Amino acid sequence: MPRLDNRKIRKLRQGSMDSAGNDMLPATLAAELEITHPTMTRMEHDEDYNPGVLTLLRVSEYFNVTIDSLIIKD
Asked: How far is Cα 16 from Cα 2, in angstroms, rounded to an integer?
């Protein structure tokens, strides 16, 4: 069954900077994506978490990647 690639989400965030030029924190990215901080944390750490399509769309548009690239197909 396909699942979210937690490592990819974390790697995308860690490779980004906030508006002040600092490393992007999960809370900062959550605010940018208009999702909750707990949702962002779950996306990065909970391998069983299954976010909704709209959440995945926000992530993919923010980082300019496809939704498919955020999914692991087992």
From this structure: 26
37 membership: H or E segment, kind and range = helix 37-45
* CA separation for the pair 74, 71 (Å, rounded): 10
Give residue-wise pLDDT tens across range 6-53.
Answer: 999 999 999 999 888 888 999 999 999 999 999 999 999 999 999 999
Q: What is the pTM of this model?
A: 0.89
Query: What's CA 74's distance to the chain center, in Å?
Result: 20
Paired with 4 in beta bridges are 71
The backbone region for 33, taken as left when phi is positive above 0, alpha when psi lies in -120 to 50, beta otherwise, is alpha
Element (H, E) at 71: strand 71-72
